[in-house]
Amino acid sequence: MRTHTPFIRTVVLVTASLLGAAGCAGQDSGGDGAPAAPRTVRPVAGCGTGSWTDPADLAPERKAARCDKGAPAPRPLAKKRKITVATGTLSAEYVAPLQVAVAKGEFAKEGLDVELKVLPTPDALPLLAKGDVDAQWAAPEAAVMNGVNGGFDIRWVAGNFSPDPTSKSGLWVRLKDGESADHVEMAGRKLGTMIGKGSVIAYPMDTSLKKHGGGLDRISFQQLGSADVLTALQNGGVDSAWLLDPIWRKVDGDRKYAFLGGQPVGEPLGGLLFGPTLLNEDPDAGVAFLRAYIRTVNTYFAGDYKSDPGFVAELAKLLKTDEATLRSTPSMRMDWEIRKGTTDRLQQAYADAGVSKGTPVPEAKAVDRAMYSEAVGHKL
Q1: pLDDT of 181 above 90
Q2: Whole-angstrom Cα distance, residue 307 to residue 340?
Q3: The sheet that has 190-193: what strands, in order across it?
Q4: What is the pTM for the complete model shown?
Q5: 353 Cβ partners below 8 Å, 6+ apart?
Q6: How far, in Å, CA of 232 to CA of 238, rounded?
Q7: Measured between alpha carbons, how far is residue 223 from residues 194, 196, 266 in Å?
């Protein structure tokens, strides 16, 4: 198998930066990610039994947690607080809840002045580790888990979304003679993707590949720009590709191609990462941030938000995309919860891909559900 050297080098460099930052900031954070004292969790109006689901429930038909529209109500901080959130993009639909929360003043209602700062993940992670940014809208990728394994406090504190069951965002292959969607031999093929082996997409990608005689260790990767992935698949530059919304619609229905699988329905693979400032130094602000985020989901993204033409128009302006493109794919299932075992499954995929080092990080060191549970009034 041909090793994807540039990406592995990136993972190593990002991990080294994280560990260096951990050495500088670890003395301030305490290194365990726990609040200084137990926090009181009170019932929250409008957030009943449906505002929490069992993390062990991985059923695709699981209903995402929801409170009433407008809940949980704001509880403004005593003093206004500036929070900087790093995100790799402001144009992707999965960032829409943050964009809407800023535009609709949901963060401001909590006494938060939130800045969304576009930074590539390799640049943002060391800043999160040092506390130079407060949060990151990203995912527990290999570099993050390697950094946590090195002793630094970064926690995955809230989910983002899972795909609609009708979405075909995921792994597509150009079929050879005699092959069908039910019988494809993936071993030895070249896969084109914007996302390297250390991304969370490695987990569903590995799952789909193994169903067809492949696996991350049995294929070669060609990392491509977003505009080049589909072109490479269509002109034969690669044999398969991970196609995102709405690109997959270009090949859907064409018998030369088959969809092999995507992100598990009902299992978010990313969302909010908190660093030391919101985990340890100012957890009140951390809970307030999550309260505003959750309220935004309940108010604007509770169901099929694309059925509202006016809201789609608003989103298109915020995301700087055209309405037709936004309407061409089904609404995402916005979901602030984190499923049990997701980080274990991610790390297994990273190990299969050869981009993780050391003993796997236990879930308790990588995930913190306490803040979003407090925001909806659920006692762990």
Answers
A1: no
A2: 31
A3: 220-223, 190-193, 240-243, 170-174, 257-262
A4: 0.87
A5: 142, 197, 198, 202, 206, 216, 217
A6: 6
A7: 5, 7, 27
Q: Check if the beta carbon of residue 106 is closer than 8 Å to that of residue 296.
A: yes
Count Cα atoms within 13 angstroms, Cβ side, for 199: 14
Residue that terminates a domain, selected from 262, 286, 313: 262
Whole-angstrom distance, CA of residue 75 vs CA of residue 293: 13
| Boundary (domain end) residue, out of 262, 289, 309 | 262
For 191-229, write each residue's pLDDT tens digit. Answer: 988 767 888 989 999 999 999 998 888 988 888 877 789
Report the CATH number at residue 19.
3.40.190.10
Q: What is the pLDDT of residue 134?
A: 98
Report residue 260: phi and psi, to 5°: -105, -10
What is the span of the domain harbouring residue 220?
Answer: 170-262
Do residues 285 and 112 lie in contact, with contact meaning Cβ atoms separated by under 8 Å? yes
CA distances from 61 to 161, 264, 267 (A): 14, 11, 11
